[in-house]
Description:
single chain; alpha/beta; Rossmann fold; 5-stranded parallel beta sheet; globular; disordered C terminus
Amino acid sequence: MTMPDAPLRPAIVLVDDEPLHLRLLQELVRECASDYDVLMVGYATAGLAHCTERSVPLVITDYVLPDMNGLELARAIRQVAPTTLIILITGYPTPELRRLALAAGVTAFVAKPFPLAQLQALITRALAAVTPPTTPPTLWPPPA
């Protein structure tokens, strides 16, 4: 007799075609999100596939990817997982790209280079928004 498979834990998907960036993001995410699986992929299509196959409350993606850009990925995620939060990281932080990112459903826009504490705070706030906290948050959303 076989035991049924245990349900998959929710996952945070990291999408970047630079392996070093993925490893750094993985370490950062694991520090503030130990209750989640962390999945690293180098292609947007692979990240999108994870969003269709399991619970993915958060995707962190680079803008420049080999198969589609981060905006295209955000639009595709909105079609299959409309509640998934998306953090877009880019080395091209123009006002126009920021406007397009928000229109595509990106939750947060992060310009490279950035302090790691900034991204860690964004991840923590994003996960607090999707996971009911044990105590009420005191600053959500953060003051402008």
